[in-house]
Write the structure tokens for this entry.
Amino acid sequence: MSLIFSVLILGLAVMLSWPLAKGMIWAMCPGGQAGGFRQGLETLFQKVGGPAAVEGQDWKAYCRAMLLFNACMFAVVLAVLSLQRFLPLNPDGKGALEPSLIFHTAASFTTNTNLQHYSGEVSMSYFSQIFGLMWLQFVSAATGLAALAALARGLSGKTEVGNFYRDLMRATFLVLLPLAVVLAVLLVLGGVPMTLEGAATAQTLEGAVQTIARGPVAAFVAIKQLGTNGGGFFGPNSAHPFENPSFFTNLVTCVSIPLLPMACVWMFGRITGRMRHAAIVFAVMAALLMVKVGLAVHFESAPAAAFAGLPVQVTGNLEGKELRFGAAAGPVWGALTTATSNGSVNCMHDSLNPLTGLVPLIGMWLNVTFGGVGVGLINMFIYIIVGVFICGMMVGRTPEYMGRKVETREMKLALLALLVHPLFILGGTALFASTSWGLAAVHNPGAHGFTEILYEFSSAAANNGSGFEGLGDNTVPWNVATGIIMLLARFIPIVLPLAIAGSLAAKKPTPETVGTLRTDTPLFGWVILGSVVFIGALLFLPVAVLGPIAEHLAVAGK
Amino acid sequence: MRRANGDIGVFQQVMTAGRVVIVTMAICCLLYGLAILLIGQGLFPRSANGSLVCDEHGNVVGSELLAQGFARPENFWPRPSAVDYNASAAGGSNWSPKNPELRGRGRAMAARLGADSGHALPADLATASGSGLDPHITLAAAKYQAERVAAARGLSVATVTGLLERQAVRPGGALTPEPVVNVLQLNLALNRLGKHHE
């Protein structure tokens, strides 16, 4: 049954990603005759944006516009969260937020991370949720899609990579919004609340008073899932019965996690005109993802070690899991949500068995097994460039990618982009694991406590947003450190690849010969698979041994 | 080549960014939010307001989707909750699988429900859910409590077990072989059963 469930989720996502990519091309790269519907929309976007939305931008201007708009996103939401007490749609009278938490939350949602050091139903007004956080869930995902479209145009040889503002509106209104409407309606149908009424008060059957937090949940959850955002309306995210009331809602929200990242690969193939290359990349990503899903389901079918010897029936590990989703739902979701930089959870990752907990960590360390909307493939592009370079060195030829020579400048940028990720994870973990900042926040004893710190930094650097939530991370040092890491880990790996694409596009195309390393063959698939696995293992195996593997061995040894 | 950004100044850039902020917010927050709100409140008002359950006097007694802290012997008990069934601050225990506190809770639940090695406790009654509000227990966990409930209510065990079997559902059909029951609905049904008998 676990196998059928996993195959069903992945199969549905793969099948839907293909037609979705066609729609994304219609949205992001409009052709069509003047006067047609699509061209009409384009004129509208130009009018809305004004002159700066009309011009064509090279990669530098595109990045400047992206950074400017993202700075506006950050500033607007800083203001919304700071002024929460004075704004409307606050039926439960949520009060002021602590400044470092405001900084952290704004950074988190601007960067598509959605790491949450607060619980939605405790801290946030409906206005903050909808006009602050949900808005960022749309436009941050759109930023990723826009960046990927620009990268693909650059790699297909264009020095003018598009216009950021128009790409952002295309992605928001023509890709994300229609999908969100469909999913939100399905969720409402499945029983997810959608109300502006404040909390309900119930007198329970045994006479206690239960305050039932609710709100405009369905709209929020839809874009949270689709945009690889992952920030929940409630603290426990999609484990909460109001975010995810049934097996059916769990199925559709789980399929919607990898949907757009998968479609992004096909979109990349269509824009660059290299569908066979895209198919190879897709296959590598899918293979890695399937291995992770399989491992997670397998490891989680063992009971929690703490119950050994107690009169408790032996089943899969049920701590932190909801019964209505079935046995495999937690680990499948856990693998998908970290492979795609989503970060929503439907079970508590802190309570996963040690080796199951390693699977989400691997997902975030690699961050390319489909990855975030747009940015997942941008990350993979770095591995591709490195793979191409290594192969070129092995056969003694100047490496090429998409008909352009990859030389020193491109390699410097690629390695820089590759290394910021482990630097933030390992550096942050080292600093906090050796000071009271981290040690005082740890919730579980032994190696698991170290893994909590490691997980938090991996999640911030991968712009993921899930957590080992036992960690007491709503403190000034955690908020500031992970806030800064999220911002840098978001924009450096977008700007540097665009710089590489700009640099490649400025070169003369090299004609393909028999000696050219072809990027559309299974051999090339093995090359990028090797790059991802070996570079990932070199960077992260030591910390994996210190955390989850040490914990597993300690558990197994008793 | 036309120079990009040739005649577009910083002021124009900021104006455009501001306009895109306003338009995206108006459509993605206001219009989208309102549309889903109308669909929810118009077509599914009960679930859109939290699937609240009322007694015969119209008083809200809970939500069908959320667990509440049943502890009396005549009621079926839900799974343990790390947040004491607080539906305004939900959460899990976040205890690691080897955490001694998890073992302590498992032992306490086994003792409370009278489990021993010949009559092991279903694992869902020893573990807290991720939300602390899981409204279900497995059918096995309900049957485990049937004797206590039947005795406390003066019903036959067969009556209670019969009710359990009728209330049990497989949430995902064939994909979730383990049947579950909703604890609140189960206890409400028991209360109704008691009334008929009077």
Q: What stands out?
A: Confidence is low (pLDDT under 50) at residues 1-6 of chain B.
